[in-house]
Amino acid sequence: MAIVGGGYAGMWTALRIKEHAPETRITVLEADFCGSGASGRNGGQVHSWFAEVDMLLALVGESDALMLCDATADAIEELRHLQTSGALDMDLRLDGWLWTASSTAQEGAWGAAYDLCRALGKDRFRLLQRDDILRRTGSGVSYAGIVEDRAGTVQPAKLALGLRRLALEKGVTIHENSPVLEIAPGPRPHLRTAGGTLCASKVVLAANAWLSAIPELHSYLYVVSSQVVATAPAPELLERIGWMDGASICDAQHHVLYYQRTRGGEVIFGRGTGGIAFGDRIDGRFNRDSGKGADNIREMHRVYPELKDVPVLYDWSGPIDCTAQHLPVFDHLRDHPNIFYAVGFNGTGIAQAPVAGRIMASLVLGYDDVWSRCGLVGINKRTRLPPEPLRYLGARVVRRAIRRKNDLEILNRKPGRLTRFLAGLAP
Fold first, then answer.
1. What is the rounded CA–CA span in Å between residue 246 and residue 95?
2. pTM, full prediction
């Protein structure tokens, strides 16, 4: 069996298959090094799918929505056990995940998820007031929100490398720096790389945003960029403003802000940029923004003016694979029942990828169970996106409207009717 992609989804799929069928020979082909994509360059935010329970319920129904949300809560506990047992070192801190508002337009963005959880008997969230948020984050910019207590942060690259080590210990073969140049389908697909050809009975495609290059999947996917900056360590300053714990924090604007402080006192500050490329062709702009994180730094200084004299040492970007429903999809290619895929994680994957691994393992092994039958399996129920060039041109117009809307709303100013209409066209 071959797995294309050495990030969270690929590694969790390999580990879940080994749990059920330890005799299975698995080879992972990774174009760069394991974790070099979204798995190693995200903001390290760990939270369950209860934050998306309203979207899940609309797509898969109440039973599956609850099952999937509970599974991500279980995955968080699995990560905790892996760390406390010494199996993984990922700097996991379950100090909570805060979903906040810093303008009137953002207030109540969590309302649907919060109300549904309570109606379904799941008290996953607590309401926060201004003083609570100030005490937890050291910033008075956000003044309302909710917290998921059993959530928090990780060092994402450590997690990716730890999963790689676990997979190797289970007997998984991993070839890094081995981009797949061609897949010849058939009863035993052939995967051609520069170093040779691998023949496998089944193939799993777990290359997130890069799967948009497959025409069959491109119709349902769009790729956007997200940007992250990291400061020099400033533990004394953070202690002085009261930012002490390892909670993950985000706001509720469309191009969401997400941030955390590390154990060493660095600040990791990310922002969705909505950056796109024609045909979703992922190039160097998705690795590093030419502005060297200027937008992020501006927003970081708005939220934490105390950090203006703290140097920003690193900035990077990364592509995010999105679907119109903002939820991943699992299936096999239409005419190739032995080539499977997991795609569309929409920037939320640390607690979700362990669940994705269960779904993929059941599909690959041919099990008829709650995972293979869950409502995230099957692409036909998903929304198709416009073809090019309409997709690219429309996305540029919508992106400008969203940025204009965000910039006005953060000042508690109301955007014009046209701006609101265009921003509302976003998937």
1. 5
2. 0.96
